[in-house]
Amino acid sequence: MPERLDTLVIGAGMSGIAMGYHLKQRGLDDFLIAEKSDGFGGVWRDNRYPGAGCDVPSHLYSFSFALKPDWSRKYALQAEILDYFESCAERFGLGDHLRTGLIVRSLTFDESEGRWQVRFADGSQTSARVVISAVGQLSEPFTPEIAGLTDFTGPVMHTARWNSSVKLDGQRVALIGNAASAIQLLPEVSERARELTIFQRTPNWIISKPDRAFTAFEKWAFAHIPGWQRLYRLGSFLIHELRYSALVKGSLASRFTLWSGKRKIATGIKDSKLRAKLTPDYPPGCKRILLSNDYFEVMQRGNVRLVTDGIARVLPDGVETANGEIVPADTLIMATGFVTTEFLPTLEVTGAGGGSLREAWGASPRAYKGVAVAGFPNLFMLYGPNTNLGHNSIIFMVERQAEYIADKAGLIVDGGLKALAVRPEAESRYNADLQTRLSKTVWAGDCPSWYKTADGVITQNWEGLATGFACTLGRRDDADWEGV
Question: Which of 224-227's residues contact partners 24+ apart within 8 Å by CB, and which partners?
Fold first, then answer.
């Protein structure tokens, strides 16, 4: 482990790769990427459950600086996405900067030196002038506290920690959760299991997924017709930008989405009782809208049952509902998502003056432009608070953040600054304005979602078009920063 570094990047997923690329582009080559797993890929390395894939089109869910003409289909699956990110890391020489199995436990800012003192879980240490978190919002699996969960005698696994050796064929499977991961693995699990019981807390709005394999001619055209792939990608980006209007409360697009969602349920579900269970009572987009072409079909299979009564406790050989029903189970699958609203949940971060980041944030994390927090100099975040989207590609957002952060890191590493920190008043002004605008979106509605904290503050999503975020980061903001 180097004793001193210019830059430490935490996480080797999509964000860490983008950050490494932009650091190298600016000649900031003295950096280390610390990754807790055994390689590049992030969530696409962790999430290997059956059917895992992306709900953003393949050509859009890729870096602008590393286009891939030979995507196999419009919406790629996990293995192909992981291969893409690994190939990007190799292509841009990031492997030499990677250290795997390295978990960052604490960051402490040394004001006298203008450096972060970094402690790892294995006891090793280093110091860095700049620290960049690329851990993302979907890195730590969330398992709800359910009475008796540890007493279950069969296999228990989270979708983000899938164990392919667990036998599902002919088994009674209980699936807790019914959102993005669940609807992707449902088709295969329902075909293999003797009985599949799905425990649903809240129903989801479902839209069709326009997925298909690309033809050989299409892939040839992407590779050989100059500009065609970029034009295709731009068209996909603009179509998705237009979808933002459906996330504004009371908009015509929002009302149309509600009508079409109800129509899809009405035509797709024959049984009235099941239809009632699967019909949300909140506007589309308040929770994440899910893409699937076979969800309703799967839910009506003879070996599949939906339970909405709530879970009282887990028994050694099953699940007891809030109404006292005992549901036998051999295997328990947790499709319960991630710890999203805490940000950096596994790190102890102590900034200037001894302030704790956890205490500074309280229950509702916030950041200036999603990348920096007042009182924590030389510390930056990718995919930080209020940088998520509900309508377009997160890779576009992360690229803009990586460019922005690389510029700030350059001021510190090459520009002679000891420390660079956002001014508290700038952070407060930015977030007050952002939350005012967010109050006009469907995310502010009355529904449980990972977009907001328990007190109702929307901490995950950006308000507006992705291009609007790019403009926000592209504007000069020297007055909002204090350098020494």
Answer: none
